[in-house]
């Protein structure tokens, strides 16, 4: 499938609407404007690709709402060349945005089908993140520390192992709460054993689940 003028037009409208909802980081908005979201969606939802909504992908999971993707990415304060761990590859859409922003991306997915699908899709689009099929609760200890950690599924609490893998002066963005909704938490690591947490509104994510699955 191609990226047509029609897709580009719809995408620009979507980006304008996200800006109106309060996203101010132009680098994030520009990166989203460059990425054909429809290439990360299932064919049955293609006509909705540029609606500001979450949609089902495979295995009962979802591609996050574009506003939510923009919000999390802005809160991370993305910077070129920084090393980022993404938990929950899902469709690979968020992964593509982080790569467009020039970050060094390590992404983990626990469902094999999604891992394989988004891996081949991202590669076919020319993106080269480091892909892992595994349990994001564990992080990637041998590759730590990470300058940024982005969790794109709702956690019951902040996993201790991820905190340990965050670099000093690093930032982690993670939705924390129950099944019905989560608070967006920003964790800033201010010293080796010091963190600062702040809350940034309510969102609704599929749950972060322990262990990997087939
Ligand atoms: N960023 C993705 C969000 C997908 S939904 C996108 O926009 O497409 C969240 C994803 O997190 C799902 O694919 C789910 O399988 C995955 N996930 C949940 N718990 C996980 C864990 N412990 N480790 C890795 N991935 C996990």
Structure characterization notes:
The chain is α/β, with parallel strands linked by helices. It has a domain at 55-203: Vaccinia Virus protein VP39 (Rossmann fold). 29% of the residues lie in helices and 28% in strands. It has helices at residues 5-20, 26-34, 66-76, 93-100, 112-124, 160-164; strands at 55-56, 62-63, 83-87, 104-109, 130-133, 146-151, 166-178, 181-191, 194-203. The strands form 2 sheets. A 7-stranded mixed β-sheet has the order 5-4-3-6-7-8-9. A hairpin with a 2-residue loop joins strand 8 (181-191) and strand 9 (194-203). Helix 1 (5-20) packs antiparallel against helix 2 (26-34). The longest helix has 16 residues, at 5-20. The protein starts with a helix and ends in an 11-residue tail after the last strand. Residues 61-64, 87-88, 90-91, 93-94, 108-111, 114, 135-137, 152-153, 206, 208-210 line the site of S-adenosyl-L-homocysteine.
């Amino acid at each position: 499938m191609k990226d047509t003028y029609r897709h580009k037009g719809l995408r620009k409208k979507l980006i304008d609407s996200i800006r109106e909802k309060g996203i101010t980081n132009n680098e994030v908005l520009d990166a989203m404007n460059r990425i054909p979201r429809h290439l990360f969606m299932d064919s049955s939802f293609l006509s909705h690709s540029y609606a500001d909504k979450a949609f089902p992908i495979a295995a009962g999971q979802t591609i996050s709402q574009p506003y939510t993707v923009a919000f999390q990415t802005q809160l991370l304060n993305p910077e070129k060349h920084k090393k980022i761990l993404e938990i929950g590859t899902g469709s690979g859409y968020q992964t593509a945005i982080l790569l467009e922003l020039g970050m060094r991306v390590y992404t983990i997915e626990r469902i094999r089908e999604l891992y394989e699908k988004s891996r081949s899709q991202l590669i076919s689009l020319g993106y080269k993140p480091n892909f892992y099929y595994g349990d994001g609760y564990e992080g990637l200890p041998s590759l730590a520390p990470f300058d940024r950690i982005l969790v794109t599924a709702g956690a019951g609490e902040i996993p201790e192992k991820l905190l340990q893998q965050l670099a000093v002066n690093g930032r982690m963005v993670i939705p924390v709460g129950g099944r019905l909704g989560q608070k967006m938490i920003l964790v800033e690591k201010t010293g080796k054993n010091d963190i600062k947490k702040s809350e940034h509104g309510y969102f609704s994510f599929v749950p972060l689940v322990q262990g990997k699955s087939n």
